[in-house]
Amino acid sequence: MATAENPFADPGLPPHEHRAQDIDEQAAKRSERTVALLFVVSMIATVGFIASYVAIPIDKIVYIWPIGHISALNFALGLTLGAALFCIGAGAVHWARTLMSDEEVADERHPIEAAPEVKAKVMADFAQGAKESQMGRRKLVRNTMFGALALVPLSGVVLLRDLGPMPGTKLRTTNWKKGVRLVNQSTNLPLRPEDIAVGSLTFAKPEGLEEDDEEFAEKIAKDALMLVRIQPQNIKDKHELSWSHEGIVAYSKICTHVGCPISLYEQQTHHVLCPCHQSTFDLSDGGRVIFGPAGHALPQLHITEKDGFLEAANGFEEPVGPSFWERG
After folding, report:
1. How many Å apart are CA 284 and CA 286, to the nearest integer?
2. Burial class, 202, CB count within 10 angstroms (exposed 0-12 / middle 13-18 / buried 19+)
3. What is the DSSP string of 245-312?
4. pLDDT value at position 4?
5. In terms of domain of life, where is this protein from (predicted)?
6. Of 272, 145, 167, whose CA–CA distance to 221 is shortest?
7. Distance (Å, rounded) from C-alpha 133 to C-alpha 26?
8. Rounded to two decimals, what is the model's pTM?
9. What domains, with CATH codes, occur in the chain?
10. How many CB atoms lie under 10 A from the CB of residue 95?
C-alpha cells in the first residue's frame, strides 16, 4: 500500500492463474504429444539433412519461387537443418509454457556469499524445479527430446565430408614409372648423364609434364626430383648405389616433414637441407634423416640410362612428401 513515506510501494504479484494443463490431465497429454511430435519432426529433418547431403548432386540447380534458381543441395540442407533446429527449440518452448511450472515466486536479495540455509534452499528449489519440469513423469517428451538432441549433431559430422574426398591411392602414386625420361626443370630438355656434374644439384620433372598444364602445381608437388652426382665409392648405402647411374642419384625434392621443397645442398657432406624446419638428409646414405623433425628418409627413384638419356627404371617404392598415418 502506498504511503507518504513510500509512494511507490511494491504492488506484489498478481494472483496465479492455472493453465488448462495444470487442472486437466487430458490437456497436459495433448501438450505432451505436441512436444513429442516436434522432437520427432526434428529427428526426421536431421535424417533428411543427411540423406540430402548424400543423394543430391552438388551441381544440381532447381527453381524455387520466389528465390529463383539456386543449388538444390544448399536449399535442401538449409531447409532440413533449419527445421531440425527449429523443432527442437519450439518443442522446448512449448514444453516450458504448457507443462513446466509457471508460478512466479519472489525471492529476497541476499549477500554474495550465501549462508548455509540459503544454499540449502537453492538446492531444494532446484530439486523442486526438476520435479515440476516433469522430466521423469513425461517420459514421451523426455525420450523424444533426447532422440532429437542426439541426432542433430550428426548434421555437423556429415559436413566433415566437405573437408575433401578421401585420397585413395593418390598419396602413394606419382607420374614416375618405367621408361619416363628425366627432364631438366630449368631448360625443359631431357637430361643426359653428362649434364650432371659432380657436386651440382639439378632439379628434374617427368617428361610430358608442362608448366602450362592445368594440374601442373598439383603434380609437381609429388613429382619434383633432385639429382646429384656422387663418386660411387662415396655412396654408403648399397641399395642406393644399385639404383643410381654412374653415381647419379635421384631423390624426391619434397621434404618428408610437411612437404616443403628442398633446395639447399652441401657438396662436401652430400647433405641437403629443408629451408622450412631445417630437416637434413644424407644423399650418400639412402637419403636418411640426420637432423630435424622429418620422420622418414627421402624416397629414392631408381634411374637408368637409355639411348643416352636418363629415365626412370620404375616408380617410387614408397609415398613421397609428408608422413601420414597409413604410411609404412
Report:
1. 6
2. buried
3. BTTEEEEESB-TTT-PBP-EEETTTTEEE-TTT--EEETTTTTEEEESS--SPPPEEPEEEETTEEEE
4. 63
5. Bacteria
6. 167
7. 17
8. 0.54
9. 20-106+113-163 (no CATH), 170-312 (2.102.10.10)
10. 24
